[in-house]
Amino acid sequence: MPAQSDDTAPRWFPDNEPPTRLLLVRHGSTEHSHDGRFSGRNELPLDEHGRGQALAIARHVSRMGSVDVVLSSALRRARETAEAIVAKVGGQVEIVEDLVEMEFGEWEGLTLADAHLKWPDVIRDWLAGIDIAPPGGESFADVEARVTPAVQRIIDGNRGRRIVAVSHVTPIKTLLRIALSAPQETMFKCHLDTASLSVIDYFEDGATSVRTINNSEHPDGTN
Fold first, then answer.
1. Rounded-to-integer distance, Cα 155 and Cα 22, Å
2. In which band, very low, low, confident or very high, does the pLDDT at 129 lie, cut at 50, 70 and 90?
3. Is the pTM above the cut of 0.90?
4. Which of 61, 91, 103, 209 gives the lowest tally of CB atoms within 10 Å of its CB?
5. What is the CATH number of the domain that holds 46?
6. 67-111 confidence digits (pLDDT tens)
7. For residue 25, what are the CA distances in angstroms to 111, 135, 212, 215?
């Protein structure tokens, strides 16, 4: 709840102001997803299961009401998921480069256990600090520094509209954490399934309301 002066009646959200609703979709699965591998800037396509997930989330989003804008990370797995959504809701996919996943550098394609064998100290520090980056990669602070202003520009340019943004685990978790005013360790205590839906409402005075986190129970049973 935003701060209020002593003489203002308390409220949860701004009166008579439609929010800007951001529907955050994690892309469907790829061959990296099933083994929990670091999957950053690669161009892997959706696998067969991921294509089914993309169709399921597209149907789910289309049943939630009209969509004004569909945005996507430039990476193939996100674009393919976004294309399934526009096939159901109409419009075109708009690419937003800053919605891409974290750059994992030398950890790309490895599991956490694999990386820990070679870089135990870096893994320990990475899990504990926002400013620690994988070798040749980005830190959580780096991701926040590019995602936060990018999404603010999106919100400012689409006030009162419903926006679908197809992205990845780290950018989505970052946006949820910020909207909740939650500490950094929240990033490691929140799970996002492939093809899951999270929803944030943004108000013009800066208030935010997280309505959904990690909804992967789509009506046709694909999760």
1. 8
2. confident
3. yes
4. 91
5. 3.40.50.1240
6. 999 999 999 999 999 999 999 999 999 999 999 999 999 999 999
7. 23, 28, 11, 9
The C-alpha atoms of residue 74 and residue 26 are separated, in whole angstroms, by 13
In angstroms, the CA 223 to CA 117 distance is 32
Query: Can you tell me the distance from the alpha carbon of 171 to that of 100, in angstroms, rounded to the nearest whole number?
Result: 7
Secondary structure class of 88 (helix, strand, coil): helix
Structural domain includes residue 122: yes
Nearest to 95 by CA among 185, 7, 165: 165
Residue ranges making up the domain that contains 190: 20-215
Q: Decide: 168 and 75 in contact? Cβ < 8 Å.
A: yes
Strand residues in the chain grouped as ranges (E): 20-26, 69-72, 93-95, 162-167, 197-202, 208-215
The set of catalytic residues is: 27, 101
Decide if 162 contacts 142 (C-beta within 8 A).
Answer: no
Residue for token digits 């520094």? Answer: 145
- Residue 221 to residues 25, 113, 204, 215, Cα–Cα distance (Å): 17, 32, 36, 12
